[in-house]
Design a protein that fits this description.
Distance between the termini of chain A: 99 Å
Structural class of chain A: mainly alpha
Number of strands of chain B: 17
Oligomer: heterodimer
Shape of chain B: globular
Helix content of chain A: 40-55%
Distance between the termini of chain B: 14 Å
Number of strands of chain A: 0
Structural class of chain B: alpha/beta
Shape of chain A: elongated
Number of helices of chain B: 11
Number of helices of chain A: 3
Strand content of chain B: 15-25%
Radius of gyration of chain B: 20 Å
Chain lengths: 148, 383
Amino acid sequence: MAEQHHEKLIHPKGWGADLSFEERPGVPKLKAPVAPLEGSRRRITQQARPAKMPTKRMELSSMTPVFGTAQLPHGASGLVRRLAYRIPEHWASHWMLLLGADRVDVWGHRLIKGARALAIGGSIAAGGWAIKQLVQKGMGRRRLLATI
Amino acid sequence: MRALVYEGPYRVKIAKKPDPRIEHPQDVILRITRTAICGSDLHLLHGFVPDTRVGCTFGHEFTGVVEEIGSEIRTLRKGDRVVVPFHISCGSCFYCQRGLTGNCENSNPNSDIASGVFGYSHSTGGFDGGQAEYVRVPFADIGPFKIPEDMDDESVLFLSDIFPTGYQAAEMAEIRGGDTVVVFGAGPVGLFAMKSAWLMGAERVIAVDHVQYRLDFAAKYAKVETVNFKKVPDIVRYLRETCRDGRGPDSCIDAVGMEAEGSKFHSALGKKLLLQAGAATAIEWCIQVVRKGGTISIVGVYGPPWNLLPIGTAMNKGLTLRMNQCNVRRYMPHLLEHIRSGRVDAKGIISHRLPLEKAPDAYQIFSDKLDNCVKCVLLPHEA
């Protein structure tokens, strides 16, 4: 079957493949690094400390000159993440804890979202029930007054 | 601002977030004009990348206009149009000075194995990404590349990642004149690896995938031979028999990464049970297929901590394995000339353009390979 399939293959002429090797635009390749890069500095200013510090790996004594400040660790998942970053990254447990923290984060987020939806739904239902009670009470009082 | 927000595996939505601000004197704030969804964003979406936090904004392929600049910025001005490499590099550290800007040691406090990357979990520094209206770009004198006035944003958008990554993949494959190169994966990076393999002197380029429309597109776009591995009984045997008189190809490129199809064993262990970091099927096939003394180039993304690989086979066959995240900045000027001269029609791979509001739909289209999708581009400021 493999041979049959191979017979059906077409051998298209690719762009540049019909030029001689020396004339191909990709040759010579970019083997040598382009250095120094324009705009590079000898001394890099340290990014200011935010009020709440992001995570960092345990091998570093201080933060890198720049770092991300998005989604700082919080709640139960944050505790697991901070624990994970106390373990060297060449240990599998470091990564397993981080994957575990991700799942805790997602479930925590879903629980909070669900609780919010329940609270909103519950307050609407309670409000409706209260209005119904008030209306019924009002109607009962009118009926009582009418009988008198 | 409006931004894509991660809510857990397979769930993203568009939500309001605070605007990014200058946090370091070498930062700029960009107003995003074009932003693409990368195949590696799907690994985040599917929950394979450790420390992907709820609320994270993905996106590491983008172009934009400089809106605000930090006090130490020398090379950019407000209003400059730029395309930004996916990784964040200082330009000064041990690695950047050696051209390895994809391995910068000054931008990620969370891990030594990766530099800072936009929107790619906290394992790569915890920076929000570009699938938003605005983004913070650190070390903006080093990474962002000014877009020439005669070129539109879409033409150069893929200089941010997939074109240089495909090019570096071909470069690492050490192609010599007359070589046969097999590229596993006919996605966007694979397509650019195929184009680059021709540029570097390959005699035969063969694309391997199981998604037929992608193979058809590769045949048309990159003029390569194609093999659907689901239509041959044994892909390893097939490729060996059909290359170099039964020896196998000279080089193989893995442009697939951790969510490969084709091996129930790897898929069960890596994608269902998470006992290895995704399915290493493509690397295994590379090792088995390539001829003795051949070269394997890996640009597919794999997560920590490990994968099951036939390393004994690689050793006995005398293979060279080369791999890295792409050092994008190094290739940008060179590849811009390939685009400008018309040798590579980079924006020709865009199949879908959608407003930012439709980003969750775009993820579904791209992830499920619907509607013959090759590449999705989001337009954050257009309704």
